[in-house]
Design a protein that fits this description.
- This protein is α/β, with parallel strands linked by helices and about 350 residues long.
- The protein has 3 domains: about 5-145 and about 335-345; about 150-190 and about 250-325, Rossmann fold; about 195-240.
- Helix content is about 35%, strand content about 20%.
- It contains 11 helices and 13 strands.
- The chain has helices spanning about 35-45, 105, 110-115, 125-135, 170-175, 195-210, 215-240, 240-260, 265-275, 310-315, 325-345; strands at about 5-10, 15-20, 20-25, 50-55, 65-75, 90-100, 120-125, 140, 160-165, 180-185, 260-265, 280-285, 300-305.
- The strands form 4 sheets. Strands 10-9-11-12-13 form a 5-stranded parallel β-sheet, with helices on one face.
- Strand 11, helix 9 (about 265-275) and strand 12 (about 280-285) form a beta-alpha-beta unit.
- Helix 6 crosses helix 7.
- It is globular and about 60 Å long.
- The two termini are about 20 Å apart.
- Mean pLDDT is about 85; it is low at about 1-15.
Length: about 350
């Protein structure tokens, strides 16, 4: 029925054969470098990248005859009502996260049926795993693929520096008290966002220009102002090339790998820190955020902003503790790597 050099897969209950394997990489057109760190985590395993695919628009793809192997990792999605991958995509769902804000719009009947074709779904967090199980989709906690960044990126020699990534500026003064150690400030924003002070001032002017007296209308007006500046930030970020975005992401990865300590409000600075066994303090107001479920046992210190001064006082800056439960974390990483390799080797 098929020639020996053809490879056939079942897609949407139909058998499709192809003699060519292509490799696709998901990218997200956002201003968040964390999205590109997740892309790099998948890219490190691919023999090559034949096509870059928009994470939020996987339906319309130029290749029509070739099958495209794609690691479906990351945050999904900005377009929940339209998301459904093309039939030419052969996916591996690993480190897959569904945003709680769009979950009920995302999990339409056709999406659930699609996911069932590729069970079990490897989820980035326990919340997503339970969500999919609730909808009858077999899923498990795989962890995030960024936990494997040390697969390609070798751990350089530790430097006497603290790397700060998107920490509230008002908290930095507590770190400065320790002196005698380099502090390197980085950000996950591709372009520096419009200052919050400017946003507040301009939003206030928008409200005043509308002469709004009703408190609700004033509130809506301020939100419109904030939304406007968010759009401006995104448009500025879109002008940067994909190559430059990846270079920025790689630079942050290497800074994390060589740091003595990382202090951050970003999940995708925390998880790469765990990959390189870099001590990390996660500063975030909500420890119960669904995105963090499954990682609490590996994060050395989870600190809400209002307790930051006390958190810093409790640790030895000169010799911070590495991530706990590292043996269990290593097992999680080995399983991620083995799953990716098996997927890429099958039929290649």
């Amino acid at each position: 029925m098929w020639s020996e050099n053809e490879y056939c897969i079942k897609v949407h209950r139909h058998v499709r054969c192809s003699t060519i394997v292509k490799y696709g990489l998901l990218v997200a057109r956002t201003e968040n470098i964390g999205d590109y760190i997740q892309s790099i985590a998948a890219k490190q395993f691919l023999p090559r990248v034949d096509i870059y695919l928009d994470r939020d628009n996987l339906k319309d793809i130029k290749y029509t005859n070739d099958r495209i192997k794609v690691i479906m990792n990351g945050w999904f999605t900005d377009r929940p009502k339209k998301w459904l991958p093309s039939r030419v995509i052969e996916p591996l769902f690993l480190g897959f996260h569904i945003s709680p804000h769009i979950a009920w719009r995302f999990l339409r009947r056709e999406v659930i049926e699609y996911l069932k074709q590729y069970e079990p779904i490897g989820c980035r967090d326990i919340w997503t795993m339970r969500l999919l199980n609730h909808f009858g989709v077999k899923a498990y906690f795989s962890g995030c693929l960024t936990l494997t960044l040390d697969y390609k990126y070798s751990v350089p020699e530790r430097e006497e520096k603290i790397v700060i990534i998107d920490l509230d500026p008002s908290l930095k003064r507590y770190i400065d008290l320790y002196g005698n150690i380099e502090i390197k400030e980085l950000s996950h924003y591709i372009v520096k966002p419009v200052s919050p002070q400017i946003v507040r001032v301009m939003s206030s002017r928008i409200v005043k220009s509308a002469r709004a007296k009703n408190s609700f209308i004033r509130y809506v007006g301020s939100l419109l102002g904030e939304t406007l500046f968010s759009i401006i930030d995104l448009r500025r970020a879109e002008k940067m090339s994909l190559e430059m975005r990846f270079k920025m992401a790689e630079a942050i990865i290497l800074e994390i790998a060589s740091a003595k300590l990382v202090i951050t409000s970003r999940l995708h600075a925390v998880l790469p820190s765990l990959a390189f066994k870099t001590p990390v303090i996660f500063v975030h107001p909500n420890p119960t955020d669904p995105r963090f479920s499954g990682y609490q046992e590996y994060i050395p210190m989870f600190c809400p902003p209002h307790r930051f001064k006390r958190c810093i006082a409790e640790i030895d800056i000169s010799n911070p503790s590495p991530p706990p439960n590292f043996d269990r974390l290593q097992e999680l990483k080995r399983n991620l790597i083995a799953t990716v390799k098996n997927f890429l080797e099958l039929g290649s």
